Structure formats: C-alpha cells, structure tokens
C-alpha cells in the first residue's frame, strides 16, 4: 500500500484537540487514510517522502454549497437581485438541456478550479431541468471521478409552479405571460424517490469519494409530501437533506403570505428540521427561527460572497453559532460568485460580520472562519467522520502550502493569514483520499490546457444560445422587479441592523 510521509511541517489539524493552533510534526499517509501524526515518524522504504520544512499542512477545504450548472455563466451578471438573476441563470423559458459533452466539461471545470484552490470536497446542488436523467447525473459523477475530488452531488427537485412559489406573482403577471409558463405535470414524490433510489443504487459511494444527496430546492418550491419523502430517504441513507431557505427578503415575505409564519417555522411544523438538514443561506431568520434551528441541530451553508453580490443580505452568523447551529462556507454557484475559491469566501466572511454591530467582541474570529471552511463544512455534508480535519483514520484530504510566500511573510498568526491574506496562491500540493491530485501548482488528473482549449472551442456556441434564451426571458424582468420591490417594502416583523437580523419587538 502506497505511503506518503510529510516530514517536519507546520500542521494545522482542525481536530478537537488542536483546533486552528499550529504545531510541528510529520503526517504519514497510508493508502487513502492518515496513518499517523506526530514527530520523527518512520515509513516504509518505498514511501514518498515530502520535505515539510517551511510548509503548512492543513485539511482540504470543504465547499458546503455550490451549483455546477452555473459554471459557464461566470462573469455574466451583476446588479441583479436573486429573483431577477434567476430569470437568466435558471430561465423560466428553457432550451433543450446542455449537451452531454458540455455537461461533462462544465462539471470538470468546477472540480478543476476547486482542487487548484484547495477545495477537496464540495456539495454540488446540481440542477438539470426540465427532467431528472440518471445518465446525465452519471456524467457529472464521471467528471468528478476523473478529477479526483470528493463530492456530494444532488439532483435538485421542485414541483410547485414558479408563480405559486413567489409572493404577488399571480396578481402582477399578465395572463398572457402566465400562459407561457406551462411546465407540464409536476414531479410527484413517488417518481422522485424512485429516481433517487436508482441514483443510490448506481452512483452513491462511487470510488469511495462520491455520494448522492437529497436536495429539495426550497420549502416554497416543493410540496409537503415531496419534502417529507425526501427527508425520510435522506435519514434512511444518512445523507444531507440539502435545501435553500430564507435567502432573500422576498422569501421571507413568501413564508408569511403562504403559511402565516416563517419558512423555518413551516419546516419545523412539518418535522423537517433535523441533524441532516442543511440550509443554504439562512439570511432572513428571526430569533425564534434560530432557536428552532439550534435545538434541531441543523447546519447552514453560509454563502457570504453570493449573498452580497445578489443583494440578499448578511446572515446573522454570530447569533446562529450562539444558537448551536453548525456553519459551513459555500461559494454558491460560479454565476452568483464568479469563482469557486473558498479562500475568497473566508476573507469576505471574516470581514463582513464586523459590520454586524458595534459590539466588537462578538465579531467572527479567524479561527471560527477556518473551522467553517474545514470541519464545519464537513459536518454540513455529514462527512465529519471522513474529512474536514487531520486525524488518524480519516481520509487523507489535505493541502501543503508554502509558508515562504507573500501571504505569510512575515509570519504572525497562521489562522489570520489563512483567512485574511491567503487566496490559494501558496498551495503547492493537494491530496484527496491519499492521492496527489495537484503538485507544484499543476493538476495531475487532467490535462488543464486541453480542457481549456476544448471549452474555448465549444462553449461560445452554447453561450450564443443562452443569450437568445436571456432575450426571451427578459419579458418577465419587469414582473420580477415588481415582486422584488413589493417584498422589500413589506413588513415581516424583522429588520436589518448593520448586517444582522434583529427582532423588531426586541428593539422597542
């Protein structure tokens, strides 16, 4: 069994004993796992020896929430709130699904960029309208297998008509436009669960790194029976129930208008807040919401960059942590972030929460951000026993960074350097499941230049088709703008205060 011994390195293990505190030592990898961590370790004569002098060894980063379906839409949109941006990134009027080769390249590009920037695990909330196709899902799995990354992959589902999942939509959209939105019979709970069981049978556990997860899009977009069936299967298979809740003010208004309560309270009443519930965003949550979330042990994927780009707001991370909610960091899709670099999210998350109020002792600290990017993210993916920290018996998912580089020069506090200074440029080696997938700044699993050349050749025609799709869907933009305008002016009982969510009654 192949061994790798990293000698005389500085180690940040992110385990229960050390946290973000660095210590000197060696790391011995045997096969896919970490065999030993300590000083003066020995290895077999044929082991690969890596000199760790002047190097930092740390766990691979975990991207707790992304969407591979956006990868070709990088750098395309700005100055759009979510409800308008969705019109163009996820159009209501659709063309045929992207071709299989482009689907593969799109997924592979996300994995390549992620690995190059230190992400060894991500949760891909893969959305592939208008149908669920096991062969297409298998194409995504194949791309991630070829790249060598660890991933949870979904096939996101919704079965509530768009106009019934948005406040004010039926009253502000003219009948002739509503008539264009005939999506056919909605997905039934039984049909989706049958599909998921097939995915578990054929794809789950592939190569020991790739898993299928359950991803009902959002409680306002899915019927109660579909969500209940999703949760039952997620619990049975011990995978995340991965969903979007309260990303925008519009969604906060939606809960009140549809159910007379917040969408978190609605989830609670349906019995859908559990340990394996992972919520992307959680921006517009109240104190009562956070109490329910903490008691249930749910997780949140905090998408600090995309929340800012789409004007959604700033999630109340300190108060979520205090309530007992596990926090991971997500990039969200490349179209609403424009990179898949978790280091970018770490820096933004480390800075933006200082705007949450004048009590600076509650501002989020660098070691907390680093926890979110590693073991916290692993917990949101239900992979904390596998990855997220450097511990004997866990998967050898790790990074080797050069400490003799600008982000660490001169060296003061490693956690603060990683959060506020590093951007991925110091990464020399990336190891996933004991396999070196990047070395000396070059990916070893794929020919990067050949992939870039193929994308440059094939994608322009796809983007031209997408531009036509954007023109067709632009007819709905005034409607979505009006929905956004009305929602922002609707009183929902919570207010924004310097980036945090504050219960209005508690301020009186």
From TrEMBL:
One Pfam family in the UniProt entry: Amidohydro_1
| Molecular function as annotated in GO | hydrolase activity, acting on carbon-nitrogen (but not peptide) bonds
Q: Which InterPro entries match?
A: Amidohydro-rel, Metal-dep_hydrolase_composite, Metal_Hydrolase, MTA/SAH_deaminase
Residues in domain Amidohydrolase-related? 56-437
Record key words, sorted: Hydrolase
Against CDD domains, the record matches this protein to: ATZ_TRZ_like
Q: Does the keyword DNA-binding apply?
A: no
**Stated family:** Belongs to the metallo-dependent hydrolases superfamily. ATZ/TRZ family.
Name used for this protein in its record: Amidohydrolase
């Amino acid at each position: 069994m192949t061994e790798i011994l990293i000698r005389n390195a500085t180690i940040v293990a992110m385990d229960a004993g050390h946290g973000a505190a660095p210590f000197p030592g060696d790391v011995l990898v045997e096969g896919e796992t970490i065999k030993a961590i300590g000083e003066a370790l020995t290895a077999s004569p044929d082991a690969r020896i890596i000199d760790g002098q002047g190097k930092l060894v740390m766990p691979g980063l975990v991207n707790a929430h992304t969407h591979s379906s956006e990868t070709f839409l990088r750098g395309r949109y700005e100055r759009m709130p979510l409800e308008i941006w969705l019109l163009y990134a996820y159009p209501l009027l659709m063309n045929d699904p992207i071709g299989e080769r482009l689907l593969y390249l799109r997924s592979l590009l996300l994995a390549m960029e992620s690995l190059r920037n230190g992400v060894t695990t991500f949760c891909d909330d893969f959305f592939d309208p208008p149908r669920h196709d096991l062969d297409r899902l298998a194409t995504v799995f194949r791309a991630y297998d070829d790249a060598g990354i660890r991933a949870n992959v979904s096939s996101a589902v919704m079965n509530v008509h768009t106009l019934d999942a948005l406040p004010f939509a039926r009253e502000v959209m003219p009948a002739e436009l509503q008539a264009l939105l005939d999506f056919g019979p909605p997905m039934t709970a039984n049909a989706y669960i049958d599909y998921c069981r097939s995915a578990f049978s054929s794809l789950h556990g592939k190569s020991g790194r790739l898993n299928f997860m359950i991803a009902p899009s959002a409680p306002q977009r899915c019927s109660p029976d579909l969500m209940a069936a999703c949760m039952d299967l997620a619990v049975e298979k011990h995978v995340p129930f991965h969903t979007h809740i309260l990303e925008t003010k519009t969604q906060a208004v939606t809960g009140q208008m549809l159910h007379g309560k917040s969408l978190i309270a609605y989830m609670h009443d349906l019995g859908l807040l559990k340990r394996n519930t992972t919520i992307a965003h959680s921006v517009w949550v109240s104190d009562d919401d956070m109490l329910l979330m903490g008691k249930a042990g749910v997780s949140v994927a905090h998408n600090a960059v995309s929340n800012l780009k789409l004007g959604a707001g700033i999630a109340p991370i300190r108060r979520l942590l205090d309530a007992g909610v596990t926090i991971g960091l997500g990039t969200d899709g490349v179209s609403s972030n424009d990179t898949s670099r978790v280091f970018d999210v770490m820096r933004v998350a480390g800075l933006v929460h200082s705007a949450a109020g004048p009590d600076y002792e509650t501002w989020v600290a660098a070691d907390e951000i680093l926890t979110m990017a590693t073991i916290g993210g692993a917990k949101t993916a239900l992979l904390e026993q596998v990855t997220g920290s450097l511990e004997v018996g866990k998967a050898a998912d790790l990074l080797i960074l050069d400490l003799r580089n600008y982000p660490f020069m001169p060296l003061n506090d490693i956690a603060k350097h990683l959060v506020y200074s590093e951007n991925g440029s110091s990464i020399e080696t990336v190891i996933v499941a004991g396999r070196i997938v990047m070395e000396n700044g070059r990916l070893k699993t794929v020919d990067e230049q050949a992939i870039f050349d193929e994308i440059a050749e094939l994608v322009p025609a796809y983007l031209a088709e997408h531009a036509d799709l954007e023109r067709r869907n632009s007819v709905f933009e005034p409607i979505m703008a009006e929905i956004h305008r009305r929602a922002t002016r609707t009183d929902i009982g919570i207010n924004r205060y310097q980036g945090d969510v504050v219960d209005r009654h508690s301020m009186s």
